[in-house]
Amino acid sequence: MPKYPKGVYVSSNEEKKAIFTVNGMSCSACAGSVEKATKRLAGIKEAVVDLLNNRAQVIFYPSFINEETIRETIEDVGFQATLITEETNDKTSQVCRIRIKGMTCTSCSTTVESALQLIPGVQKARVALATEEAEIQYDPWISTYNQLLESIEDTGFEAILISTGEDRSKILLKVDGVHTDNSMTIIESSLRALPGVEDVDIDPELKKLSVSYKSDIIGPRNFIEVIESTGSGQFKAMIFPEGGGKQSHRQEEIEYCRRSFLWSLVFTIPVFLTSMVFMYIPGLKDGLDIKVVNMLSIGEILRWVLSTPVQFIIGRRFYSGSYKALRHGSATMDVLIALGTNAAYFYSVYSAFRAATSPTFKSTDFFETSSMLISFILLGKYLEVLAKGKTSEAIAKLMNLTPEMATLLQFDDEGNVVKEEEIDSRLIQKNDVIRILPGAKVACDGFVIWGQSHVNESMITGESRPVAKKKGDMVIGGTMNENGVLHIRATRVGSESALSQIVRLVESAQMAKAPVQKFADRISKYFVPLVIILSVSTWLAWFLAGKYDGYPKSWIPSSVDSFQLALQFGISVMVIACPCALGLATPTAVMVGTGVGASRGVLIKGGHALESAQKVNCIVFDKTGTLTMGKPVVVTTRLFKSMVLRQFYELVAAAELNSEHPLAKAIVEYAKKFREDEENPRWPEVQDFESITGHGVKAVVHNKKLIVGNKSLMLDEGISVPVDADEILAEAEELAQTGILVSIDGVLSGVVAISDPVKPGAREIISLLKTMKVESKLVTGDNWGTANAIAKEVGISDVIAEAKPEDKAEKVKELQTLGKVVAMVGDGINDSPALVAADVGMAIGAGTDIAIESADIVLMKSNLEDVITAIDLSRRTFGRIRLNYFWAFGYNLLGIPIAAGALFPSTGFRLPPWVAGAAMAASSVSVVCSSLLLKNYKRPKKLDNLEIGGIRVES
């Protein structure tokens, strides 16, 4: 059956509807530009853009226009558009990550990205030069990951598959003892028959199995047991040795570059000595000047022999890179190096042949130029990969937090431990019970079922103080148990763990390009061709000037003629230009910046978030859980009808039990005090439950109709609020408390006052933001009285209260129309629309998953101080990016004229090609090292000097 876009239908007059996701819109002006551009197209009946959900709905006439043309039009406006296809039981979108070897500059990554985007079924492709990885979103029903790999290989680079799909609940196993393909087939069949196994891929050559499974049903230990019992004990299964990880790949690359550089030195040093040192030592000079054939000397033959392996064996990577790039119509740094070194080498060969065939021709060779040029470039590449390896140290440290081994406990029916077993931590399955000894790392996410201790979670959350853990408390894999023994039950293992998700988020952030990088990408398309034109023009200008006496003969050094002088200038221009520095300016800084943020508990989701955060001049704060502790407690209760307080709270708790709102949870927790004799109290059955977002809930409990919420909800439901209740509400609001009204069977029956104290230091943080020229606003769903009291306490003057989720988003958009760059800080489900609408959404880490998913920045420690850290780190990172660009552009703008001989007429200074090559290599290294200085980031001193309640805040 053919697939149609989601929601597409053909009506009687041949109308069609298509829905697109539109990424990159930040304000109503963006949405308006998309809508306007779409409506201008012929055959469009209607176009509506939903900014909050990043969607565009278009009704059109297919006889005039198609979905692809509409999508391209949206992309031309400057946004990423994807047609939403119908939802089926099968997955129609999959993410594939591929490591790419051999990319040297932005032109390389752009070439690969363009090639991937041309493959049918590819919805989005991102190629990161700094991480040397590609992330491709594609339709697995149209294209396969093998096609993606082939496409990258066709562009001239080596491609290695890292992962396909989300790779959650997937494990690689190696099987020893397999001697025939039939054995692997039997093992595959045995695994496929297991409940919960979704897919099995086999690699007969490596004896490798890839098993995708449902972790709730089955796990890796089950697979090993099945494999080892299949072949009467002849098979042995284990987790496949990790050799293809990012760090091992980086080490391989470092070792390869080091080896290439050292081999080049073996040949280049003698070339350098014979051409530039021995020529000034009388005895050695006479020996090197001995003529072998006509005017061809021993010294020239030695240089020729020694430089040839450097040019064609050690330097073959530049030839292959150039060939592949030119074959696909692009020009990379390899092209410049190949042209420059070939010009020097083959002119030297020509000179040597002329000397060998002529009794009078006195040759001058540049063999040292080509070999030294390649050696310096290889040195630069070696230093560059060393430095680039340090940019991703944050991820490496995170990945190494999980311990290699874990102690698995097995129990009898009475709950006694009957067996302890040391297992690979990657073999932990859901619901396993793991023992954590003092001083050991927690092996996986889970909750404590026995024991008490303190756990240091600073490596995950950045919180320096150990957190007390007792029965029922959650623990995070990779954290450090300090002083007690804990038994934990595993809940999230492998790639589902919090640590894995943080790593994946940081990796994804480092893949994402900052908008400022598009500028460098555009330049890179024309950079190399322009340099080649400048190089040829330089050579031609100096050559013609020398031939037609355009400058005095005294300018020409004694060892060369006018042609050779012109050739040296041309080669110097070609090899001094550095597209690498431009290409690395942004991604290396983003990598280090996001890594530093992650190590401090501030997860920044990529370059776009960094770029937007550094421009923020207005912050909208949610109240509950953001400015306040987020752990509200019931402080007073007033009843307006005669009933037992326990009975009242039993009804109210039952109604609020299904609500996710913090105030509802506070009521339920308070109600448990009346039933302390029950560990897990059972509440009455609830019927017709309804949540009215931003107002309260309605439900039927024990055949009584309950309405629990704010005053506006009561008035909407036609329930009168007596004067006494109004006075109690006003009194609570003055004390910064929230008053919850409870109606039973249409009669107001009580008021519950709930207090949620302000976070320590909130006032000081708001004050510090003012000094950073950032305005603060408060938007909350709570009542006006409480909102104003909290705002006054923290020092915020602009308040919006009783706001529904859409009202919060509207407030954000209203501020954006005033020209402000807005950040939204929130933690709840009702904050999600505003987090999406804001230029930068900041989610408090203790908040809900949906808020964290909607945000651009996640503050893992749930500290308000990290709002300042996030903005300051973004500003520092972008300051570094600007410095990198200034250096990269300045280097090329100054270096190219000097290499072309701009200073030669006035000062006699000229840049030999090998020096120009060394300068080019140094420029890209310096940009990476400049980015690495961000690793020394210190948060603002104002925060270090901040005292909250007499206690100094420490990072």
Automatic annotation (TrEMBL):
What Gene Ontology molecular function terms does this protein carry? Answer: ATP binding; ATP hydrolysis activity; copper ion binding; P-type monovalent copper transporter activity
Query: Which keywords fit this entry according to its UniProt record?
Result: ATP-binding, Copper, Copper transport, Ion transport, Membrane, Metal-binding, Nucleotide-binding, Repeat, Translocase, Transmembrane, Transmembrane helix, Transport
How does the UniProt record describe the way this protein sits in the membrane?
Answer: Multi-pass membrane protein; Peripheral membrane protein
Q: What is its main location?
A: membrane
* Localization per Swiss-Prot or TrEMBL: Membrane
Q: Which family does it belong to?
A: Belongs to the cation transport ATPase (P-type) (TC 3.A.3) family. Type IB subfamily.
Protein name per the record: P-type Cu(+) transporter
Organism of origin is Anisodus acutangulus
Instruction: Give the classification, highest ranks.
Output: Eukaryota, Viridiplantae, Streptophyta, Embryophyta, Tracheophyta
